[in-house]
Each structure stands twice: as C-alpha cells, then as structure tokens.
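Input set for joint prediction.
Command: fold jointly, output tokens.
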Amino acid sequence: DTAVSQTPKYLVTQMGNDKSIKCEQNLGHDTMYWYKQDSKKFLKIMFSYNNKELIINETVPNRFSPKSPDKAHLNLHINSLELGDSAVYFCASSPHNLWGAYQVIAKNIQYFGAGTRLSVL
Amino acid sequence: AQKITQTQPGMFVQEKEAVTLDCTYDTSDPSYGLFWYKQPSSGEMIFLIYQGSYDQQNATEGRYSLNFQKARKSANLVISASQLGDSAMYFCAMREDGGTSYGKLTFGQGTILTVHP
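tokens >
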C-alpha cells in the first residue's frame, strides 16, 4: 500500500484552465504539506495543514488553493493556470507539527508522494 | 542568506567505493533536524536519514551515515560501498523547530551522484 499517494502523476493542460491535484496519506499523520519543485529541481514549501487547519502559506499566488477535507487528505486546486506553474508538485505528510516553544522533537520525518508533473502549454 | 547549501552540483564515484556529499546549514535555532532525501530519475523523494540537533551520535541507516559536525554546521552524507542504484539526485534539508517555521523543510540545491561500474 502506498503511504502517500498523489493523483494524477502527469497533468498536461492549457493556460487559463483550472486543475486539481489530490493527495491522500494512510499513515495516520496529523500534518500534510505541498511542495513545488521547479525546473532547476529546487524544492520549496507552499502550504501545510495540521489537522485540517492551514498553518503555512508561503507567498503563493491566491490562484493556488489547498483544501483539506480531513487530516488524511490535502488537495491542491489551481485556477487560471500560467506557463510558470509548470513544475513537479509533491505532497508530503509527517506525524506531528510542533511549533512555538522549543521542544526536543522526535524525528517527525516527512514522507513524500511520487509527485505530480504539471505541464502548462 | 542560504539556509542549506550543497556546494557540489555533481559527484562521481566508482562502484563499491565510498562517497561523501556535502551539506552546510545556517540557523540560530537550538533545536532543528537535518534530513537527506534521494530523488532517482523516476522522480520520487525517498527519505534516507535524519539527525537531530540534540543527538549525541552521528546517525546511521545501513550504508548511509551522517557526519554531523555541529560547530561547523555541517551534515555530510556518507554512502559506503556505492551501488549503481545509488545514482540519483540527493537533497539535504533542515527543519527548524522554533519560531514560525511550523515544521517546514528547507532544501538545498541538490547534488547529482553518478556511480560508475
């Protein structure tokens, strides 16, 4: 069984279209993330949800809207697609999200999905 | 300033030899975690190894070990007995546990490792 699964794996679409990428994790994790990997392979956080609550929103255009119907799912909807949105989008999950006061944190490893390669023509 | 720096865009190693991939980091957080991920040509991101800032010993996972030098702020990945299947892109990443980081990972630029037979 795949721990973090994303669909679709490939997405080819025209500029201006709206598309969604789905992510599901069966690890029982509390926290889920979306990362974007650009053409130079650089990975950057976009969003994070902890128990369905948005906790990270990293200066992403508001054409991108994450939605978490429950803690096992985090979907990414993109409106009015632009050429620059072409990238690989990774979903990830981790057991917890602990922030605020310094704590000795357990490993809290983030496990990634296989990625969705989005091509905007 | 770059929080995670991988200075080697590409590395070559002979099969069965050991190789070290460099990673330096920058943080003022006393509590943080350092991670290495492997991205083969198929594209998935595979977790390899973790080192916590408070861990006294260097992490090891099978053929992977992390050479953690806290004072120098370096977290180099050592792969022993390289195999052809180790050819991939390798990413170093850091999670800062305080402030407003909220658990996100900050990644380095990556190093492409090629293992020659």
